[in-house]
Amino acid sequence: MATTAELFEEPFVADEYIERLVWRTPGGGSRGGPEAFDPKRLLEEFVNHIQELQIMDERIQRKVEKLEQQCQKEAKEFARKVQELQKSNQVAFQHFQELDEHISYVATKVCHLGDQLEGVNTPRQRAVEAQKLMKYFNEFLDGELKSDVFTNSEKIKEAADIIQKLHLIAQELPFDRFSEVKSKIASKYHDLECQLIQEFTSAQRRGEISRMREVAAVLLHFKGYSHCVDVYIKQCQEGAYLRNDIFEDAAILCQRVNKQVGDIFSNPETVLAKLIQNIFELKLQSFVKDQLEECRKSDAEQYLKNLYDLYTRTTNLSSKLMEFNLGTDKQTFLSKLIKSIFISYLENYIEVETGYLKSRSAMILQRYYDSKNHQKRSIGTGGIQDLKERIRQRTNLPLGPSIDTHGETFLSQEVVVNLLQETKQAFERCHRLSDPSDLPRNAFRIFTILVEFLCIEHIDYALETGLAGIPSSDSRNANLYFLDVVHQANTIFHLFDKQFNDHLMPLISSSPKLSECLQKKKEIIEQMEMKLDTGIDRTLNCMIGQMKHILAAEQKKTDFKPEDENNVLIQYTNACVKVCAYVRKQVEKIKNSMDGKNVDTVLMELGVRFHRLIYEHLQQYSYSCMGGMLAICDVAEYRKCAKDFKIPLVLQLFDTLHALCNLLVVAPDNLKQVCSGEQLANLDKNILHSFVQLRADYRSARLARHFS
C-alpha cells in the first residue's frame, strides 16, 4: 500500500501513473530490454494494484465521512453560539438606550439648573459690580482716592477699566449737582489715557509687541484710541526714509508694518489704511509738490517728464499696496489718494503737453532749416493756390518760377526721428496721465500736432519746394533731385505710419476718434501722393527732355545715310551710347528711390515715353541700306537698355520697334513677307508704310510696287 501511495505525484496524470507502475513491475518492460516482457505477470500486477486502490478508496471514504460528521457538529455548535451572542447584543442595546435616555434627562435637568443659577448669579454679579463702582464713585465724591487700583501703577489696566465705566456713568449725571465729581472723573480719565498712550509709545520703542497689544486692547474703549494709532503711525515712520527713493522706502515700510500690525491691533486693516493715507497725504504730496512746482512755469519739458515719472512711480506703489488687506474697496481708496495728489496737475495736463509739443516741434524744424541757411518760404493757401494746384494737376505745367534747391531735399530723417520721438513720449504720457474718458480726445490732439509739423510743415513743404525746383522739360543738363525727395518722403511716411499703428491706435481703437484719425491720415496720404505723382510726372518729362537734347546734339543725318557705304566702322551711333547711359542711370535712380509696385509703375511710364521718343526720333531721318543696319544696331542697344526696366510691355514695344527697323534694310521682294510676320502682322498698315517711306530707295518704282 505504501508503494501504491508513492506512485501518486502532483499534478496527477493517469497516463504517467500507469507508465510508472509498468516500469516498476518485473517483466513489464519492452521486448528489447534486458528482461523479457511478461504479459501474465503484468496482468497479475494490475489486478493486485486495482485491489489495493479499492482498499485505499474505502479507507479515504470512511475518513471523509468522519470529517463531514465532525464539521456538521462544529457548525451546529457555532450557530448556537452566534444565537447566544445576538441575544446578548440585544440586551446590551436595550440597556444602552435606557442609559442614553437617563443621561438626556439628567442633562436637561442640569441645563435648567444652570439657567436658574445664571439667572440668580447675573444680577448678583451686576449688583457686586455696581457696588464696587459706587465705592469708587464715592472716593471721587470725597475727593480722596484710597483704593489700591488707583494708587498702584501696576494695576493701570484694572484702573482703566473702572475709570472708563465711571466716565460713562458720569455722562448721565446732572451737571449742576455733580459738576465737581464729573470733573475729577474726567481728569482721571484723561490722565489714565495719557499714561496708557505713553506706555504704548515706550513699548513700541522697546519693540515689545505683546505689551503693545495689551495696551491697545485697553485703549480700544477710550476716546484716545485714535491717538494711539496716530502715535504708532508716527513712530513707524521715524528713520524709514533714509534712501533717495521715497517710493521704495514707503513700500518697504508698509510691508514691515503689515507683518506686525495684526499682532497689535484688533482692526489691522484700518490701521494700515490710515498709515498709507498718512504717507500719501503728507510725505508723497509734499515730495511731488517740491518736484513739480519748481519747474512748472519755467521748464515745460522737465515738468512733463517729472509729472510722468512721479505719477508712474505712485501708481506702481499703489499696485504693490494692493497686495495688503485695506478693507472692502481698496482700489477706490488708493485711486482717491492718487487723485488727491495729482488732481491739480492733471486738470490742465493736455494743455501743457500740446503747448510744449508745438513749441518743441517748431524749434526742431527751425533748427534744421537754420543749419541749412534756409529761410522757409510761405506756401500760399486759399482760392488762387487751389486754382494753381488744379491747373498743375491737369496740365503738368510748372506754375511760377523754378527754384534752384542745389540738390537739397529739405527732408531730414534725423528731424523726423526727433519729431516722432517727442510725439511718442507725448503719447506715452497721454496714456498714463489722461482720464480714460478724455484719452481718445487728447491722443487725437497730439496726432493733429504731429500731422501739422511732420506732414505739413516738413514733408509737404519739402514736396512743394521739390516741385518748384523741378526744371522745365526743355532745360539742358538739368539736375533732377525730386526722386531723392520721393525716396526720403517714402521712408519718412513709413515711420509715420508705424507710429500711427504702434502708439496712436491702441489709445483710440475703441472710440469714435478712430474714424476721425483714419480719415485725416487718408487725406494726408492722398494729398502727398497727388504731389508725388505730379513731381514724378514732371521729372519723367525732364528725363525725356534731356534725352531729346542728347539726340539733337549727337545724332547726325549722315549717321543713317553715310557718304561711303562701304566704310562704316561703328556698331552704333554716339547718340545711342549717350542716351542709353543716361537711361540706365535714371532707371537705377528710380529703383533706389521707390519700392514695391511704385517702381514698376514709374518704370513702365518712363519706358513708354522712352519708346515714343526713339520712335519719333527715328522717323526724322532717311536711311540707306547701311544706315538702316546702323539704326537696327541702335534699336538693339535701346532694347538691351529696355531689358533693365524688367517691364514686359516696354520690352515688347522695343521688340516691335526693332522689327519695324528691319523694314529699312529688307529686300523689296521680301517686304510683304516681313510685314506679315508675327511681330508686325497686327500693326496698322500706315505705321508700316511710314517706316518704309524712310528708306532712301523708297521712291524707286520697284519698292513702291512691292509695298503697294
UniProtKB/TrEMBL annotation:
Say yes or no: keyword Coiled coil present: yes
Under which name does UniProt file this protein? Answer: Exocyst complex component 5
Q: InterPro entries from the entry?
A: Sec10-like, Sec10_HB, Sec10_N
- Keywords for the protein's UniProt record, in alphabetical order: Coiled coil, Exocytosis, Transport
Query: Would you kindly state one Gene Ontology biological process term found in this protein's UniProt entry?
Result: exocytosis
PANTHER family documented for this protein: EXOCYST COMPLEX COMPONENT 5, SEC10
Identify the residues that the record assigns to the Exocyst complex component Sec10 N-terminal domain, covering every copy. Answer: 39-147
Q: Which family does it belong to?
A: Belongs to the SEC10 family.
Domain annotation Exocyst complex component Sec10-like alpha-helical bundle: ranges: 158-707
Record carries keyword Coiled coil: yes
